[in-house]
Amino acid sequence: MAAILGLNAKAFENIDYTAPAAGAAHDDARAAAYSDPDFTERSNIRDVTLNLERATADITTRAGNGYRQVASTLAEASVDFQLVYDPDDAFFTALKKQYEAQLLIDMAFADGEIGDEGTAATGGTDGVIFFRAEFAITNFSITQNLEEAMMVDCTLQSGFSANAPGFTTVG
After folding, report:
1. What pLDDT band is residue 17 in, cutting at 50, 70 and 90?
2. What is the pLDDT of residue 33?
3. N or C: the chain end with fewer CB closer than 10 Å?
């Protein structure tokens, strides 16, 4: 298997997704949009980092021979990326609107093409792996450096949803 360059990775937004206010009940419209997505590639981003971490519980015993022993517990998923500040860009506008209204956004981050619905039948490439979640936008910081284009630093964290975040393989 060959290495996959980061510049060939892709980010997708489910443009049919309608999210209620953060913390609101999972409604029928959101459930329907999640189960039958319409993924659109969002290319106005760079330097994506998918952060997956687990908290730990200390279960150290004397049998550990002086070593701390842990068990993994709850997982956390977040995504950090930069977005070019462009008020005419549909993704910039969607993120800004969702951030201001404290709404979730349904996104997938992949190592290749996932197609309109995350399947090979809808244009995805067999074997492509993607991570999908309904995310809360927890950071939307605008930088105005003198010698650079204006940028937006974004952080997405898995939000309250009936759908668990996770990996899927196109097939």
Report:
1. confident
2. 85
3. N
